[in-house]
Batch of 3 targets.
Target 1
Amino acid sequence: MLKYTGLHTHLPPSFNKGAITIHRLIGLIIPLTMLISMVACDVPEEQKLRSEKPLVIMAASSLTDVLDDIGGRFKESHPEVTLAFNFDGSQRLRTQLLLGAKADIFISADWEQTEALENANLTLTKAKSFAYNKLNVIVHENLGATPTHSIRNLADLTNPEIKLVLANKNVPAGKYTRQMLEDAEHNGNLGAQFKIKVLNNLISNESNVRAVVQKVSLGVADVGVVYKTDVKDNVDHVKSIPVPEYINPKTAYPVVVLKDSKQYSLAQEFVSFLYSDLAQSILVKHRFDPENSVPVINQQIE
């Protein structure tokens, strides 16, 4: 009961404790209600982003055709999503990101470019490979019309009569090619200075492998070295010569979600899709080695 003493009102101790408890409960309910409201608001906001803002994916040029294919299948279950691919040499894409370019996902043709972004604190997830590739020599179909221009194997690459085009040494494919030539010299019984003799025939360094394919296809160069996945039936005037397995580096494609991504959950969904049975079967169709093939050691090529 309330006791009155003049103009002063005194509350019993039990009433005071109850009031304090109620005040504390109200103090908890209000911020909790606000938090729930904020989370609820974020859901439609994220859905709005998915329909209005494209998911930007920077990827190595050797992935152009296969990612277009995989992206189309991803959209079948995400019809509201727009995928914006930016294909180029991995090192050029890395440089763009280091200089401030914005994207949601980065897929490189080697580990070095991805590690540079990790070291710059530009990634949200740890890089992991989802596909692998190998090198292949390509020659123009008219090469070999005369004995002096015939290319049958790696040893013929030293022929001073041929014109060679490669990816730049800073491009993953270019680094792997030069490593392959060095391994061929030391382990392939191709003689001293084999690498130097081959590189003496070099007429052009390209920023990506697709440019190498184009120059050989057009006859600007006689020979090039690209990934095996670049040797396609729809490429005109090009024949291929396989690189022996024991000197052919198996290259990895690490993928990472970037720190500046505004659609982190969607980016994660796309990355997860790359490891699905469907996406892996598409990779095999395009002649990539799938993620569940023999693991690759993190290759650092000087």
Note: The chain has a mean pLDDT of 83.
Target 2
Amino acid sequence: MKSNPHHLHKFLSLSEFHKMFGLPKPEHPLVSFIRLEDIELPEELSENMVLDFYKIAYKDTVGSAKYGQHHYDFGEGGLVFTAPGQVFEKPKHKKTKGFLILLHPDFLLSYPLAKKIKQYGFFSYSTDEALQVSEKEKETLFSVFNIIDEELKSRTDDFSQDVVMSQIELLLNYSSRYYKRQFITFKAVNDRLIEKFEKVLESYFNDDEELQNGMPTVQNLADELNVSASYLSDMLRSLTGLNTQQHIHNRFIETAKEILSTTDLSVSEIAYHMGFEYPQSFTRLFKSKTNQTPLEFRHSFN
């Protein structure tokens, strides 16, 4: 039976995933380690899939990766991360080498990582924003993968889950470090992305009609730049020290100060002009960023 390109296949459990891809039952119901070359792609598999658990995959055939508006080819492969509920396409290559860790959120319960894992923005990156690793970095990551694999295969004892958890957290911390290196490595490309981001943001705040619809969201700007929202924020934070939302708020303050200092419009009129339904919301945001109310700023400026 051929796959239905419009159908979305949802995997609720690790066991269901293993069965679909011709793998033996997982050693543990909430975490599993898979070698990609052992996976068999069924013909009936839908074009799009969604998991109820985290996926961390190292693939040697990631191929093209996107930075800003440019694509670069990587023969060495890289790491791809997927969070629960995130839709992704089925694998393009039938025989890919690499590793796959499936991690159910319930496995994290009672550990600090259950909350901290949401802070790793790369779980929301798109596939073409994969982490590319050097040979030395690959060796480090492979050593962690192998420890997780061996631990899951060995006899379970009181320390088993603690050991696996510590290695998963180590893997995520290494990934954060390597992504920061990647932002710097591609600084020239990301500088162009930052330049375009600044132009899009400037254009938005200079358009009265757009401005009256409210401030742009992080997702709006990411869509304009053809990158994921998480990638944009992490890249900006890494290279400018501020995330996307902070850049938006800074530009909002600049615009508000300009209007306050060059016009006689009331605070309410300025608030409506800048897309705020309630003047109090405008005043609250302005004061949180400047430690002054709009009127206090106007009086001090004059």
Note: The chain has two domains: 8-185, 188-301.
Target 3
Amino acid sequence: MSVKKNVAALGSVVVGIFILLLAVGSFYTVDEGERGVVVRYGSVVSVSEPGLHFKIPLVDAVRKISTQEQVEMYQRMEAYSNDQQPALMNISVRYQIDNSRVDEVYRNFGTRQALIDRQVTRIVLEEAKTVLGQFNAATSIRERGRLNAEMATAVQQSVTGPVIILGVQVEDVSFSAAYEESVEQRMLAEVAVERERQNLERERVEADIVRTRAAGEADRVRAQAQAEADGIRLRGSAEAEAIRDRAAALADNPLLVELVKAEKWDGKLPTTMLPNSTVPFIEANKPQ
């Protein structure tokens, strides 16, 4: 009797635990940044948004797929530049699963990583070779920004399916050590040439300044000489005019000469005279 009771009690415990497990297994949660694909007997029946949800125990299964932003790294991909220089490229791709197409991810690919391997990785490998093949080795180093932009455009336009490419970044492009050294030397030579060109331009500007200053100084000296010549000419003209006026006055009044003599004479006769010389005398009694 006691054995039957023990068996019954054990059975009740097992049934209770089973019911409890069923009850607990009937609920599930989906976190922010993911979606839950509800699968029933192998078929997708719904996609659950973030929150608490109910499912049929032992019948429904939930496959959670992240829709958050992810980064996929591609290391040491081999490619050739337009001038046939072998290169190794490191590229990072930022992406996320389209929230509205999560059921396609499970139905067509099964997992997020399978989607990336089939829809993104293949495209990145192909476009890396194609885009780098449009650049010379030196250009790919010097114009990294343009290389990044063209790589991002090529990948975004080529990738299809329920994945959104948010960005593509060429992290590094490395060539052989010998080639990189030759590129560095060539770039240094270009810098030196540019420096010499700038020096020549500076010297040309300085020469122009010197010529401008010399021309200005010559103009100043020429103007000063012209002014002095004009002054001399004006003074000469004035003096000549004064002489002409005086000559005209003398011609009109001959006694003016005698008046000037009288005004200039101090009233003394010479103390020494030469033989047979005449005594200076003012013609005071000369008729007027």
Note: The radius of gyration is 56 Å.
